Amino acid sequence: MNPTTKLSERFKTRIAHQFEAIRDINAKYKTPRIKMTPWAKASLLGIRIYLIILLSILLYRFITLIT
Amino acid sequence: MAYHWGGRQRWMSLPHDLSPDKGFGGCLFFFVLFSDDKALILPCLIQGATLMDLSREGIGFRANFFYRYRRFIKTLKIYLVIAGPGIIVMIADNDAGGITTYTATGARFGFSLIWFLILLGPIAYVIQEMTVRLGAVTKQGHAEAIFASFGTFWGWFSLGDLLLVNWLTLITEFIGMTAALSIFGINPIITVTLVLILLIGIILQGRFWTWEKIVLIFCLLNLIYIPAAFLIHPDWNTILNSGLIPHFQGGFSGDLFFFLMANIGTTIAPWMVFFQQSAVVDKGMKEKDIPWGKFDTAIGAAFTVIVAIFCIVVTGTVLYGSNIASAADAAKALLHINQYAGVFLAIGLFDAGLLGAICISLASSWAFGEVWGWAHSLNNKIKEAPWFYILYILILVSAALIVLIPGAPLVLITLFVQVVAVTLLPAVLVFLMILLNNEDLMGKYKNNLAQNIISTSIILFLITLSTLYCITVLFPNLIT
């Protein structure tokens, strides 16, 4: 195996390892530890909607400013 | 020798331990500060008496002075051990983007928004104080706490947001640093290279304590705006009359909202929440240290407001009405009016960028380290935590390279980053609020009713301003 192929294999292994790490993280934190009260659920939903709307508007503003 | 004041003459035996040969000789300040007999001692000192004279004559102070002095020194020593995260995060909050925003605000609105900045100090304290409690109780950084408590969706969302906002903010820090040193004729490539070497060197020495103390020195340099303000001889009466009375000069406008948003964005930023909580954990603070952590944060909040005010005083005095787009422009303009003030402003801008770069890149690295399970302490050597340090360096280098691209809209990025950050802040605050209200997690350190009312009000305040800003963006003629 030449050095370039060896380096490439090592890089692929590293990347694969990172994807594996992401899967591990997803498995580890799959179940939220905190008790979701109605207040907490409503707050998170509100934030979700708020962020979608606001980020869309700001993106629009940014695009119009640079064009 | 006897000293008289108001016809009285007092004689009192001096506590034995207070004798000058026991190291008391240089403590004039504390002597006066904690003495019950200031009215007697001060005139004696004015007349030329030394502490040695007072000691020899056994004059004019009560025995409990020494107890108070020792207690103060002991308290000070404890505080100096705990001090760090709160002061650093608050002063680093006045980063290059922040200084640019303050100078532009001063040039555009004069002193009229000083009252608004004073309000932002307590608001920043309330938010950051919650991170101290959360970090000390859970021993988890904010990113890890979000993953563990809210699951992967919100975890990845927060981590992605943090990386994006921090990276963009880091670019603004490099913009500020290169612009500041370009005033002295230093090429941006040299600035970027030297800064990278410095920032990487600070982090690789392998001790949290050393890193913290080095950064605290840079924090002290951030106070350079105070002498800069005195150098230009501002009219303090005008500042007090115009700056402390809440009002909006020229009425509501899109321009005013943009500046208010930018000021909020620079005073309260998402990275601060992540940084301070991680720093509290890395420092190893425990529940018993929470009062000191709060005190540290309060001191930092006071400093951040003071620096912001003096920054506005400088540009509001000399450059009011000028079209100032950045702090570097302000420094250049100041050089023609008062050379030292201009130089101070440039040094302050560089220092602000440096502090911001240190904290922001660390906030990202800490967050990733927590979630990925890497070793992520500044107490780790590079061999022990390679990914933590590699990520830190990668974030720094990539942001630095962006700045060197010619023709990038740097001023626009600077202001826009602040606004993007403030739109993401409500999400971070909601997570913080939910976590701080969880009794299983926080126990007796959970938010009380008053804290909840204040925090909720702050969140609503931020959301309202963000929404109003969006309305002015979409319908610029609606509010004029």
Strand residue content of chain A: under 5%
Main sheet summary of chain B? none
Number of helices of chain A: 2
- What is the subunit organization of this protein? heterodimer
Largest sheet of chain A: none
Query: What do we call the CATH homologous superfamily of the largest domain in chain B?
Result: Amino acid/polyamine transporter I
What is this structure, in a nutshell?
By secondary structure, chain A is mostly helical. Chain A has helices spanning 3-28, 38-66.
Written description of the protein model:
The complex is a heterodimer of chains A (67) and B (480). Chain A has 67 residues and is mostly helical. Helices cover 82% and strands 0% of the residues of chain A. Chain A has 2 domains: 1-31; 34-67. Chain A is built from 2 helices and no strands. The N and C termini of chain A lie far apart (51 Å). With 480 residues, chain B is mostly helical. Chain B folds into 2 domains: 16-74, no CATH class; 83-474, Amino acid/polyamine transporter I (Up-down Bundle). Helices cover 74% and strands 0% of the residues of chain B.
List keywords for this structure.
heterodimer; A: 67 residues; mainly alpha; B: 480 residues; Amino acid/polyamine transporter I; 2 domains; 74% helix; disordered N terminus
Summarize the topology.
The complex is a heterodimer of chains A (67) and B (480).
Chain A: H1 3-28, H2 38-66
Chain B: H1 28-34, H2 38-46, H3 51-57, H4 64-82, H5 85-93, H6 96-109, H7 114-138, H8 142-150, H9 152-182, H10 188-204, H11 208-221, H12 225-231, H13 236-243, H14 254-267, H15 270-283, H16 290-318, H17 327-337, H18 339-372, H19 386-403, H20 410-436, H21 439-442, H22 449-474
